[in-house]
Predict the structure of ATPase family associated with various cellular activities (AAA).
Amino acid sequence: MVADNAHKNAVSMEQELNWFSKVLDTRLKLHMGQECSYQSIEEVEAPKHQGKDSIYAAFINYYQLDFAERLLLMLAFIPHIRPQLLDPLMIENKMTNRGWTEFGGILGKNHSGVLPTGETFLFLMAGNHLEQRFWLTKLFQGEHIFARHHILKLDPAPDGEPFLSGVIQLSRDMLDYLTMGEYHQPVMSSRFPAKRITTERDWSDLVVDDKTRIQIDEIKTWLEYGNALLYDWGMSKKLRKGYRCLFYGPSGTGKTMIACLLGKDTNRDVYRVDLSLVVSKYIGETEKNLSAVFDQAEHKNWILFFDEADALFGKRTNVSDAHDRFANQEVSYLLQRIEDYNGLVVLASNQKDNMDDAFTRRFDNMINFALPKPGQRLKIWEQAFAEKSSLAPDVSLNELAKNYELSGGAIMNAVGYASLMTLKKNSKEIAKNDLLAGVHKEFQKEGRTV
């Protein structure tokens, strides 16, 4: 399917590239006063894609892109798919012994060709026609579909330079979708501080009390009926878009697992953002890095899971230094993006009391993931072992559940340790001593004694 999409998109884009090449040639000839078959670039007829089944053709028709919009879109694509088409813009102006100012464009650090700027587009479309240039700047404004749907944007220009000197940037999603026919899965990096998380568990593995289960069901209900509530019932003008939750409780109590199950159950990708990592390593750049996450998530229905939320949303004292000022700016920025996000956002914290009260009032739901009680711990112990293993006769899961207060995650760690020790012995029978050693290790991690 991907190969078929790529082939069809390539056929459509080949036509579009040929058209662009004629437009560029026409503009340069008209600008230089050379002999030309056309009086205006608009006479160069754009390809007709009616009846074509490529994703690119469908995209053009769906948005009903006009001449200027198609030219801008193709200009954004060319550095990625056929950069040599812009080489004519690198010719030297014999009068100044340098490039032509009106062509715009810059040279990249690694890319040896032209990276088109806003000025490049205005030159191609309008030449020196001032009024037309004024009107064309609307294609870079926030209300245009290119910005609203994260198709392309004009990068901010360096301080003190004209805004049209910013580079035209095609979103990575559009590049992938309109070429290969599918979206890429972003990889965690300094520029994208989030990682896709999944689980092989299912709801039958969930061990929580009835109150917690009811609250989880509320989230599932919103994921299933939220859009119908907002748009079919017309409540979008009265209710906030999106759904915001706080999961709080000790580590290992299932906060991450629940987020993954919600994604698995509703066919949504779940991305975890470690705020402690973002703040400690990228202080001052947090807004830029978090923006990359929200921009990617906006139209993909991702569930965003912010781990270690205390790192930004913990209670604060008065601002005393630059670090505090940065932190307050980052909190304000993230709050706004969370408020504006139209999907599910989950923030996780070890303790609710660590969170700023002013922020917790913004949540639609707050779920306490407490340490499991003895009966719940017994169920977790019973589900924890591999089918190929067996328990030694002196192992009592009832005693383990009753005597050792552990989270579900800690129980699984203890079982994992005991199972490894069993494999090391070339055995399948898990010994009591190995299980107790695993339990002791978990207590030591938490600074507790058995």
Summary: The chain has three domains: 2-177, 194-368, 374-445.
